[in-house]
């Protein structure tokens, strides 16, 4: 199930396993270039950097709102939730 659909019909599903903790911390580093942060944010949504940068202003706002909403609760997504250890 997708997290959002862009105006062109492209469905976006965020996968925070596509960035490392180091990548994540860099998003909050004021010295990290915008191009580096943008690439990370694009990668999580399955976009190329140019696809993210070429979104309409409204689609970009929708994308970013959904990104930060999902980023606040990454374990709410079943594919990211830890599973109980299986007993063997």
Largest sheet: 2 strands, antiparallel
- Got a strand count? 2
Q: What overall geometry do the principal axes of the alpha carbons give?
A: globular
Helix content: 40-55%
> Which H/E pattern describes the elements?
EEHHHH
Which percent band covers the strand fraction? under 5%
Question: How are strands sequenced across the largest beta sheet?
Answer: 1-2
Low-confidence stretches: none
* Cα-to-Cα separation, first versus last residue: 32 Å
Radius of gyration: 14 Å
Average per-residue pLDDT, rounded, comes to 90
Report the total helices. Answer: 4
Helix/strand class = mainly alpha
Question: Can you give keywords for this protein?
Answer:
88 residues, mainly alpha, 4 helices
Describe this structure in words.
This protein is mainly alpha-helical and 88 residues long. Strands 1-2 form a two-stranded antiparallel sheet. The N and C termini lie far apart (32 Å). It has helices spanning 21-26, 34-44, 49-53, 57-72; strands at residues 4-5, 11-12. The model has no long low-confidence stretch (mean pLDDT 90). The longest helix has 16 residues, at 57-72. Strand 1 and strand 2 (11-12) form a beta hairpin. Helix content is 43%, strand content 5%.
Q: In short, what is this structure?
A:
The chain has 88 residues and is mainly α. The chain has helices spanning 21-26, 34-44, 49-53, 57-72; strands spanning 4-5, 11-12.
How is the topology of this model organized?
Layout: E1 4-5, E2 11-12, H1 21-26, H2 34-44, H3 49-53, H4 57-72
Antiparallel strand pairs: 1-2
């Amino acid at each position: 199930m997708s997290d959002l659909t862009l105006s062109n019909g492209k469905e976006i599903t965020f996968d925070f396993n596509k960035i490392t903790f180091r990548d994540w911390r860099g998003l909050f580093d004021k010295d990290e270039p915008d191009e580096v942060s943008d690439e990370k944010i694009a990668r999580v949504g399955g976009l190329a950097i140019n696809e993210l940068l070429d979104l309409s202003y409204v689609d970009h706002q929708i994308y970013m709102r959904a990104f930060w909403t999902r980023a606040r609760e990454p374990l709410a997504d079943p594919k990211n939730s830890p599973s109980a250890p299986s007993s063997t």
